[in-house]
Amino acid sequence: MSNNVRNPTTESNLNFLDRAIAIFSPQIAYERMRFRNALNNGHKAGGQSASRANWTPIIGTGESINKISRDRMRARARDAERNSDIANGILLAYRRNIVGRGFNLQSRTKNEAFNELAEKLWRRWSKPENCDLTGQQSLREMLNMIVQRYKVDGGILIIKTYVKDAKYPFKIQIREVDDIDGLGRIQADNGNVVVNGIELDKYNRPTAYYLKKTDPNGFTNYEIERVEAERVLFFWQRQRPSEYREISSLARSLPRIRDTDDYLETVSFAHKIAASLALVITQKFPDGIVGGMGRSLQTFLDKFGTPMPPEKKIQGFGGGDILYLEPGQDATSVIPTGAAAETKEFTTTQQRLAAAGQGLSHESASRDVSEVNYSSARQNLLEDEKTYLDIQMSLIEHVLSKMYEEVIKSSYQAGLIPVSEYPDFWTNLDDYLEHEFIPQGMPWIDPQKEANAKKIGIESMTLTRKDLAASEGKDWKEQLKQLAAEKQMMEELGLEYPVMKTTKGADTDATKEDNGGTGGDSPKNEGSDTD
């Protein structure tokens, strides 16, 4: 290209201001053009095209962004919890599969006698009168409430409390995140910074929580209690290093849930109208004059010299009524039209997206298994199990293990663990606190295929009995003890004890994909049944 030929692309990207700047400083004008091209032709997500003109999210620390709408999102999430079927489908899936029958404790010390005693103390402490400060809920029931509040509110406070004159002095108190005084002081008396009701040290580690005192009626006298962080189990999920408080995880699906609920209400209302008779009464006057106030009424009186006939409103009628209209009135039926035929497809899509935003499959959240086969159902179950397992592990690490340690230490102090038998308790405290919590196992989709796969794993020694029992939420040692007891009793009664035999040519149905139909068993090819 010769020097006297202009570059049309460069020329088009120079606006009037750039051309004016180019006269005095071509370098600055070129830099402006280069950065403008980078904005428009670089990452599309960072472009400034007309279609993204309104996409201007704010940027800042996690806490500075969350606190803007934390309370509003929590209120909306609770409203959906109270009124939305879609939201409750998601929440019930979590309740069923995270806690369910509870968590199985296994004490892991080298002393079997201590293990049995510790597990017995834990079971007794889990009763309502022993673990709950109010004496109303068992540990399993409180865990269900903790999981629900964790999903709806974003978090929950568990206060470790000791009560005098009690057989089990250690108890827990559940408090909502609303009790955190987020609008109070910004600096503690010791100089630590206070962020939305949480006191932090120089490493941004919580050292205390400022909680409002509220009576059972929900009224507060604005008296604030400072609770040491070592007494508080704050169960929430942290997404960014600069976050210090909870945010509702249900919030990301709330707009879709709300839109779907509004749509279903509108469709339902349209069906109600279509199932009944709705009329619009119109009034006509001679020579096309429309009755009304002001100039139209005066025109009618001037022309006819008689008052306008009084208006008679017809607001409704019952079944079997005959409707008589006044002279000049006309009735037009109202038949609503809409997208009622597309309701199922729209609702299913919205439910699927809302469930996916919470890490669940559509089938788990909606209980609709009409469009799955064995393979797809199993794949969804495995992915859902990973979502549940993540919360289960957090619940074990941040709540259950902390509770267990307090139960064992307080039981030793209360004399429930004999000091004479375990004099080295405090010296070897970490060893005495060794334990494991096993969450409930996931159910089988096809018991025969699942059992056969586990049988092959045991026989091929690629699966241990401990892992197999843990996958079902059981203790493998307890299983073996129970099997031995059953075998002994059957021998005493003269009954034959069944012995598992290795079968050659094991059932290969476990590796076949069920592609027949939508739910239910599909027909097998003739001669392929190896049962």
Biggest beta sheet attributes = 4 strands, antiparallel
Radius of gyration: 35 Å
Low-confidence stretches: 1-12, 288-294, 503-531
Roughly what percent helix? 40-55%
Number of helices: 17
Task: Note the beta-strand portion.
Answer: 5-15%
Strands in their spatial order, largest beta sheet? 4-5-6-7
From the spread of the alpha carbons, the general shape counts as extended
Order of helix and strand elements from N to C terminus:
HHHHHEHHHEEEEEEEHEHEHHHHEHHH
How far apart are the first and last residues' alpha carbons, in Å?
81 Å
Number of strands: 11
Mean pLDDT: 80
Find the structural class using helix and strand composition: alpha+beta
Structural overview:
The chain has helices at 8-12, 16-24, 26-41, 62-83, 85-99, 112-125, 128-131, 139-152, 254-274, 295-304, 343-357, 362-366, 374-413, 429-432, 447-459, 465-471, 476-492, and strands spanning 104-107, 155-162, 170-175, 193-195, 198-200, 206-214, 220-228, 232-236, 279-283, 329-333, 435-438. The protein has 531 residues and is α+β, with helices and mostly antiparallel strands. The protein folds into four domains: 8-52, no CATH class; 65-263 and 366-443, no CATH class; 264-341, no CATH class; 446-515, no CATH class. The strands form four sheets. It has a four-stranded antiparallel sheet, with no helix packed on it. Strand 6 (206-214) and strand 7 (220-228) form a beta hairpin. The longest helix is centred in the last third of the chain and has 40 residues, at 374-413.
